Amino acid sequence: MAEPTNTPMPPSTPVPATTPRSSSPSVPPVPSLTPNASMTTVPLFPSFPPGQTSDNTLPKRPIVLHIGDPIKYNPSTYSEFSAQFDVIRPETAERERSAFITALREKRFGDFNAIFRPFWGTGGEMGRWDAELVSLLPKSVKVFASAGAGFDWADTKLLGERGIIYCNSGLAAAEAVADFAVAMVISTFRHIPWCIGAATLPYLLSDSGGKDDVEGAKRVFQICHAQATAASHNPRGHVLGFIGFGNIGQQIAAKLGYSAFGMRIAYFDVIRKPESVETELGAVFYDSLEGLLAVSDCAVLCTPASPDGKPLIRAETLATMRPGTRFVNIARGSLVDEEALADALESGLVGSVALDVHAEEPRVNARLVKMAGLDGNDGGKPGRVMLTCHNAGGTIETHVGFEELSMRNIMAVLGGGKAITPVNLHYFPKKEEGA
């Protein structure tokens, strides 16, 4: 693998040593690192607005706009971070969209240089970073570093066109997501939701009088024991097709490929991977999504965004699958037309599904929920859908990495170096030759 699997970010990330700092004897205290504690930045020079100086003061420090909760896991890195920058963290109410827009228009945060969002579950109160928000950013902004692998909530194209580097934190979540995806892929071959449901649901759904239907429960158990065999397969030898083959896709391939579970690896990506990657993973490249789906026994969606903003998996693309193809989504719910997917399941075009992400979270598609359960009318029809609650990347190690990697990205860019995990450099204005 190109990136390490057990460290949230490259250990060799350079830390700027020449960033201007204050030699003032009165250095602002580091804000509280206690989870959910309020954090208020004390300006280095209280008599001036953040980031401004008079003729006789030391050089001003870059300003970082911190959206979301205070950091929790990396106090030593944050001490380094806050020593280099003036950090401004608006309170929750000021991050609500209307209030946030007003604050940007009034330049309450000054000419800040970076946006820092260390957690996926907080810091998104202002909603989508679309043209309305991006147009209000000061020209001083150089980098937007955020937790999470997906970035469909931010117009990275518009940010790039304005010269703002957007950095995600997919590298930090890669191992956790890959581990979870392995379980989901296996589930589509072995019908794990059916097996779990048949062992437990009859007891959970006993009549209101409290009397267990023991004979009914035995019947459901026996049906699953007998019939799941005829519907299940070993993953070995089947084609595992990746829609997007970045760090997460490559880690899943390594875990399920020929040296482990023996699956054959195929992929489609907008940029073909180096020959060394393909050779190491035994991966075959397809230059179209339709071509990949036509050969896949199980398709895994692990691309962070759609090029045109529309769902990648929709009726037209599903129609190119072979009957019975399995489908796994550990990317973004918005990349799938869930009604079209439900239609494909009902028709048998798609055999089984495992979804960790959903189009309208936290609401889950009602038709897919129904297909995830057992049909009591025939004593235990298999649930062909595994549904989870956006849990794939949810480990402590991931959140430690989100926080660390976001800070390292900002320190690298504002320190004059290269971003560690940029995703939108291809949208930057092209420099004229010789410029």
TrEMBL record:
<feature type="domain" description="D-isomer specific 2-hydroxyacid dehydrogenase NAD-binding">
    <location>
        <begin position="226"/>
        <end position="371"/>
    </location>
</feature>
<dbReference type="InterPro" id="IPR029753">
    <property type="entry name" value="D-isomer_DH_CS"/>
</dbReference>
<dbReference type="InterPro" id="IPR036291">
    <property type="entry name" value="NAD(P)-bd_dom_sf"/>
</dbReference>
<dbReference type="InterPro" id="IPR006139">
    <property type="entry name" value="D-isomer_2_OHA_DH_cat_dom"/>
</dbReference>
<dbReference type="GO" id="GO:0016618">
    <property type="term" value="F:hydroxypyruvate reductase [NAD(P)H] activity"/>
</dbReference>
<feature type="region of interest" description="Disordered">
    <location>
        <begin position="1"/>
        <end position="35"/>
    </location>
</feature>
<dbReference type="GO" id="GO:0051287">
    <property type="term" value="F:NAD binding"/>
</dbReference>
<dbReference type="GO" id="GO:0030267">
    <property type="term" value="F:glyoxylate reductase (NADPH) activity"/>
</dbReference>
<dbReference type="Pfam" id="PF02826">
    <property type="entry name" value="2-Hacid_dh_C"/>
</dbReference>
<keyword id="KW-0560">Oxidoreductase</keyword>
<dbReference type="Pfam" id="PF00389">
    <property type="entry name" value="2-Hacid_dh"/>
</dbReference>
<feature type="compositionally biased region" description="Low complexity">
    <location>
        <begin position="15"/>
        <end position="25"/>
    </location>
</feature>
<protein>
    <recommendedName>
        <fullName>D-mandelate dehydrogenase</fullName>
    </recommendedName>
</protein>
<dbReference type="GO" id="GO:0005829">
    <property type="term" value="C:cytosol"/>
</dbReference>
<feature type="domain" description="D-isomer specific 2-hydroxyacid dehydrogenase catalytic">
    <location>
        <begin position="129"/>
        <end position="424"/>
    </location>
</feature>
<dbReference type="InterPro" id="IPR050223">
    <property type="entry name" value="D-isomer_2-hydroxyacid_DH"/>
</dbReference>
<comment type="similarity">
    <text>Belongs to the D-isomer specific 2-hydroxyacid dehydrogenase family.</text>
</comment>
<dbReference type="InterPro" id="IPR006140">
    <property type="entry name" value="D-isomer_DH_NAD-bd"/>
</dbReference>
<feature type="region of interest" description="Disordered">
    <location>
        <begin position="41"/>
        <end position="60"/>
    </location>
</feature>
